[in-house]
Design a protein that fits this description.
The chain has 92 residues and is mostly helical. The protein is built from 3 helices and no strands.
Length: 92
């Protein structure tokens, strides 16, 4: 497996993990009356969808993917993961 393919596989798994965690949080918060929590969930869901679309773009880039693109995308995933982690602590 090339380093490009391995990177894309790791990213795919990370996106799936973040999506699953967010789904679990949505279910846990469904009984919550906290409007701020619901809004944060909507924002995080939107951010996840943007990341998924950007991931598709990275796949289309192919082996032409630059270091700058991977660093930028990794930073996006880190921010998304941090936001989901923060919300998880608030809900649980």
């Amino acid at each position: 497996m090339t380093s490009y393919a391995a990177y894309l596989e790791r990213v795919h798994l990370r996106l799936e993990d973040l999506g699953s965690t967010l789904h679990d949080l949505e279910n846990a918060a469904s009984a919550s009356e906290d409007g701020g929590t619901r809004r944060r969930l909507v924002d995080l869901r939107a951010a996840l969808e943007v990341a998924r679309e950007q991931y598709k773009g990275l796949r289309r880039e192919g082996s032409e993917l630059s270091e700058e693109q991977t660093q930028s995308f990794n930073a996006r995933l880190e921010r998304l993961g941090a936001g989901i982690g923060e919300l998880r602590r608030q809900i649980h």
